[in-house]
Design goal:
Layout lengths: L1 E7 L2 H21 L7 E12 L5 E11 L6 H10 L4 E2 L2 E3 L3 H30 L3 E15 L1 E3 L15 E12 L1
Antiparallel strand pairs: 1-3, 1-4, 2-3, 5-7, 6-8
Length: 176
């Protein structure tokens, strides 16, 4: 998440300045092979700033989310800042939608297998037999990204760490 900020004596001047710097940042990112679908606006705001001396200035902020492969994250942050971004708000590491769906399906299969194994053990210990499934519900624990906030060295690098996928299943079995 990066942002471009500009301060000026009027709201229109702040908007104009931030628009110019956003254009420069986008050009730099395009030259670094960051496509338009990897960049999206997350918010835009112009707000007054009141100073002790009675003057008012206006701060415009245009914030973006950049979605790039983890190996490119550091150089993309450097490019964005070099191209006009004045803030780097956060870096989050997560999974692609395809990987997330695949891992969630695998996790749900494992949860259902575990539920059946537990039900069979409990049924055997209590002298009954599992004869079927009465109901099943699932819960999505989601994906737990790892956050990084500090860069080291002259070029920005990140250590992504693990990303976890969790899901749960509740099964009610019929016994006989």
């Amino acid at each position: 998440d990066v942002a471009v900020e500009a301060t000026a004596g009027s709201a229109d001047a702040a908007r104009s300045a931030v628009a110019e710097n956003v254009s420069k940042m986008r050009d730099a990112l395009t030259q670094a092979n960051v496509s338009g679908d990897q960049l999206r606006t997350t918010y835009f705001v112009i707000q007054p700033e009141y100073h002790d001396n009675g003057t008012v200035t206006y701060r415009a902020t245009h914030a973006f989310e950049l979605r790039v492969p983890v190996d490119d994250a550091g150089s993309v942050v450097d490019t964005a800042v070099g191209g006009g971004a004045t803030r780097v708000d956060s870096v989050r590491f997560t999974l692609s939608e395809e990987t997330r769906r695949s891992l969630r399906a695998e996790t749900l299969r494992d949860a259902l297998d575990n539920a059946r194994t537990d039900a069979d053990v409990i049924a055997n210990a209590t002298g009954v037999e599992v004869t079927g499934v009465q109901s099943v519900s699932t819960g999505d624990g989601g994906v737990g990204p790892v956050f990084e906030s500090a860069a080291r060295g002259s070029e920005t690098t990140f250590e992504p760490g693990p990303v976890t996928v969790t899901a749960s299943a509740t099964v009610t079995y019929e016994t006989g």
